[in-house]
Amino acid sequence: MRVYETGALALIAGLLFASAGCGGNTAAVPSGTASQFxxxxxxxxxxxxxxxxLKKLTKDxxxxxxxxxxxxxxxxxxxxxxxxxxxxxxxxxxxxxxxxSSGAPGKxxxxxxxxxxxxxxxxxxxxxxxxQGCDGDAITATNQVYGTGLLSGLATHFDQAGTLKKSYNAxxxxxxxxxxxxxxxxxxxEDVYVSDAKxxxxxxxxxxxxxxxxxxxxxxxxxxxxxxxASGWSALGxxxxxxxxxxxxxxxxxxxxxxxxxxxxxxxxxxxxxLLATDEIVVQPGGKKFKCAHPKDTCATLVxxxxxxxxxxxxxxxPNGNLIVANTKGGNKLVELTxxxxxxxxxxxxxSGTAHVFGILATGTSDSDTALFYTDTGTNTLHxxxx
Length: 387
Prior knowledge:
Elements: H1 8-16, E1 59-65, E2 74-81, E3 93-99, E4 105-114, E5 123-127, E6 134-139, E7 145-149, E8 154-158, E9 164-168, E10 175-181, E11 190-196, E12 202-210, E13 213-223, E14 238-248, E15 251-260, E16 265-270, E17 281-283, E18 290-292, E19 300-305, E20 312-317, E21 323-327, E22 333-337, E23 343-348, E24 360-363, E25 371-376, E26 381-386
Parallel strand pairs: 13-17
Antiparallel strand pairs: 1-26, 2-3, 3-4, 4-5, 6-7, 7-8, 8-9, 10-11, 11-12, 12-13, 14-15, 15-16, 16-19, 17-18, 20-21, 21-22, 22-23, 24-25, 25-26
């Protein structure tokens, strides 16, 4: 097992955002080779890495049970990496529980902490009705945690000790996933993107530290993603949000990735930090075309659509800039994609007809040391795929 160290960006962000309320991150921010990928909106700028990481991940290790030791919550959903030691420890993992102890979907109210090694014991980080139906656990460099609840309809901020600080509900009905977005520019706001399984929107929460304390602006920057209006595990909507950034001097060339489980697509948004206005991007019916209010500043692009995607929900951003997407139909299949839409590999985790994989997380700094964590609701465990 590996212990995952923090990067320079995390240390800088930790210094700049030592106050509460900085944002969150559902998965790994590439720490080594983020600049190597070819970002949509910048065709040909960086060559895609066509090395399949998924084919290298041949060893499946069970990390431990994700059942909450206090109230028995289960049904692990999102999994997130702690990137700095501040209350929580660098390398630890946070896992959301979507079900209660009776297995009722959408009734889970806990986030667990596990160490990234075999036989890890889950420790309750927080239990709160504010995250009922917990399906997202974004985290900042200073370990401010933002949990989302599908049933509570809230995105809630907890500090590094698990103390509830504040909940946000503006423009949110059924939060489905969340991700931290910080490009590293000194004194720039840190953003949290939250998708919604009822409205089909993506909401941007922008946090800035100003005189008088924290200021938060909530804007529905993207609308029109498909939703299936189902409940519990079968709910589908925009999810699997990932954020990647590449700085050129003072400029931030950042990309947001969004999984559309209804239309079986993966979508990228170029220059995501430029998303400022309501409905700046509107997804057209079918999920493959987009109306952009300011296409020279920011716009959406279709990365991939159709088979082998099959009701995908979760995604992970690899250190080399590629993506792995997890299906919830057709055998819990993982699909590896380049940002320009090339399928590199697929891997079936569980061939049963029941969806079990709802959270995945990539760690590492290069192709040679990349690993992938995934949650398994069938056994209520966290696993690591290793090379």
